[in-house]
Amino acid sequence: MADLSTDRVMLARAVAAAAGSTPGVARLVPGTGVPVVTHVPGGTVTGVGLGPAAVSVHVAVDRFPLEPVITGVVEAVSAVLAGAGDPRRVEVVVEDVDEAAVRRAARARDAD
Amino acid sequence: MTATATKTTESAKGPGDATPAPRPTSTIGTHAALTSEHGQTRIADTVVAKIAGMAAREIPGVYSMGRGFARRMGQLRSLVPGSSEVSLATQGVSVEVGEREAAIDLDVVTWYGQSIVEVSEAVRANVIQRVESMTGLTVVEVNINVDDIFVEGQDEEPKEPRVQ
């Protein structure tokens, strides 16, 4: 049985890895305002907040539409939580969209 | 061995306690027992305090430790050549250590602009993990006092003299 701190650190890292490797996620970001980070010994895990009721993941997305990307993140993170036996909800916050994606989307709309 | 453990627990808690089994939360079983048939291990308060202090400082959200006065004294003391690191490591930490359990109180200073909830959770988790794995004691509580918040740019001691 893993203990509290190891759990916390491992969970935050696993969630970050799962969300970060989801197609369409450019990177995890701390967001505006109070930075969303999880403190671990010797550093922080950016963009992952382990709340009491929900695990929040803050991402910058590099493509449109956003919907499938968000669904992908929710699924990936839920799988991690389920694997760890964690009952918390997943909360995805899209903090930013890459400019290139916005331009691509605009071009595609003009072409239509 | 189990019998010894149970007996100790009972004698410590008194006969009134209805639950004879050792605390179920525990990592106790996985760590070395401090009391065995062949002798007893005692761990000094300073040891636990030092481990807890170091563990708390490992969390990047902790700027400094100790109450205002002690913190200033610590700064002065660290300027005195030959002063040991000991006092610094245990600054802001007070502990109570029993035969198999420890309770820890911490005074911390965090940075402005971050979640105090997050920092204190991280500190608590890390302190429990480090103390339990290094000493085998069960940490029953970690109370965290956030004494002050450090605002960047509002340095307590100016680095350069004002006059040349």
Automatic annotation (TrEMBL), chain A:
The lineage of its organism: Bacteria, Bacillati, Actinomycetota, Actinomycetes, Micromonosporales. This is Uncharacterized protein.
From TrEMBL, chain B:
Belongs to the asp23 family. Pfam families: Asp23 (PF03780). InterPro entries: Asp23. Residues 1-29 are annotated as: Disordered. It comes from the Bacteria. This is Asp23/Gls24 family envelope stress response protein. Transmembrane segments: none annotated.
